[in-house]
Amino acid sequence: MLVSRLEKSIGIEVYSTNSRGVGGVIKQSCEDFIVEEMLVNGSKAGALVSGIPKPIKKQPSTHRYLLCVLIKRNWDTFQALESVAKQLRISLQKIHIAGIKDAKALTAQHITIRDAKLEDIINVAIKDIEIVPVGYFHTKLSPYFLSGNSFKIVIRAISHTKPIIRRRIKEVVKEIKVLGGVPNFFGHQRFGTIRPITHLVGKAIVRGSFRKAVMLFLAKPYPFEHPESRAARKELYRTQDFKKALKTFPGHLYYERLLLKHLAKKPHDFKGAFNRLPVKLRKLFPQAYQAYLFNRFLSKRIALGLPLSAAEVGDHVVKIEITRLPSHRLHEIASQTKLSIINDEIKSGKMGLAIPLIGFRQRLSEGVQGEIEKRILEEEGITPENFKIKGMPELSLKGGLRTALTPLNDFKVKEISKDLANPQKYMARISFTLHRGSYATAFLRELMKSRNPIKAGF
């Protein structure tokens, strides 16, 4: 089954299911894509909860962090947090999250704000952002506390009949269940769909070329971005004139303009310009390149017909905890002598096959999977040691492991009906949950089999 050029450019080179997709479009409105975060303690952030918050108990003397639910519509996570910090007149470093959420969506997630006053939070007024205080927390929020995300999604503009839509959804989901889960690809938004640039910038950083990283970020145009943005990037690439670019780059290119303000004064200080970005955003670039390499490793494994729900000699495996989440601490490489035991554990849900996230401390796989990884790293001209980033050590990545599959939980088809927003077409309303770090779009691409991910709303 053919995969789009865009998906290949972010390392997703294959489908894992053979059933035909339903097509259609996602994210025609932000209410078509609702994401609600779930913490390991059972707390769920409700996207449609609003109004006066419940009374909060008095702050314990040992708890300095106010736990809130941040609800946003059509907001980039980092820009939303910056706006909240600005209105509260606090440093962005005082706000912590468990995970990044989609921009073009209605999302609800938990945040902690250090030393926040309840009355200040209640008075925050930002268009399409709402903050609902929940209580006090003993520490800052981090991915450690995140369990997963619940998704409520509407696929619109489907050309097939109702029975065909229902049958195709059923067939794809059945294949995924047989496979043992959804291939755990990093999704389109990890790289940028309209402008898939994040991993390319990350590669330049990992290779120590901050000039190339900055110029890719600023001046590499893509055909589907806004014409004004594309023209400004082309002009900067041609002239290399940062002062002029600062006048022509549109206001919505907020982060690009941060870099240009620095370069207009110091045109050769590319590392200094990159440092103008928030550190959490800067880290996303090498992490995106790490994600791209993972996608390629997983794609090649699938293409070669190697199993995803069983280990072979040399594969990494991780322990699955009682929470059903993979452990980052308990892992091993499958040996010939333990292979049968390990595969029994995988079959019973106590272990899972894992693939490396490349970093300076992460060991590659061995066996056939190890050969796949070595070959791809050679093609890229990269070694794990490159992820110890000289000149910007705070962006260095130790590496880790990520499961090859992620469970598809609580899947339901809520409704298949006429799509009033697209006459003569149908819509399907679905819901499901995924573990933390997993992408809804990795499942949706299997379900839809879109020829053009951009037109399909990815």
Q: What is the radius of gyration? A: 23 Å
The main sheet comes to: 8 strands, mixed
**CATH homologous superfamily caption of the largest domain:** TruD, catalytic domain
Tally of separate domains? 3
Shape: globular
Would you give the CATH topology of the largest domain? Pseudouridine synthase
Provide the residue-averaged pLDDT. Answer: 93
Q: Fraction of residues in helices? A: 25-40%
State the end-to-end CA separation: 19 Å
Total of helices: 14
How do the SSEs run, as a string of H and E?
HEEHEEHEEHEHHHHHHHEEHEHEEEEH
Low-confidence stretches: none
**CATH architecture heading of the largest domain:** 2-Layer Sandwich
Task: Please state roughly what percent of the residues sit in beta strands, choosing from under 5%, 5-15%, 15-25%, 25-35%, 35-45% or over 45%.
Answer: 15-25%
CATH class of the largest domain: Alpha Beta
Number of strands: 14
Determine the structural class based on helices, strands and strand pairing.
alpha+beta
Descriptive notes:
By secondary structure, the chain is α+β, with helices and mostly antiparallel strands. The protein is 33% helix and 21% strand. The chain has helices spanning 5-9, 77-88, 118-122, 162-179, 198-206, 210-219, 227-239, 242-248, 254-265, 270-274, 279-303, 339-347, 367-380, 440-448; strands at 33-39, 65-73, 95-97, 106-114, 129-137, 146-158, 182-183, 316-320, 326-333, 351-357, 400-403, 405-406, 409-418, 426-435. The strands form 3 sheets. Strands 1, 2, 3, 4, 5, 6, 13 and 14 form an 8-stranded mixed sheet that branches. Strands 9-8-10-11 form a 4-stranded antiparallel sheet. The protein has a two-stranded antiparallel ribbon with strand order 7-12. The chain is globular and about 60 Å long.
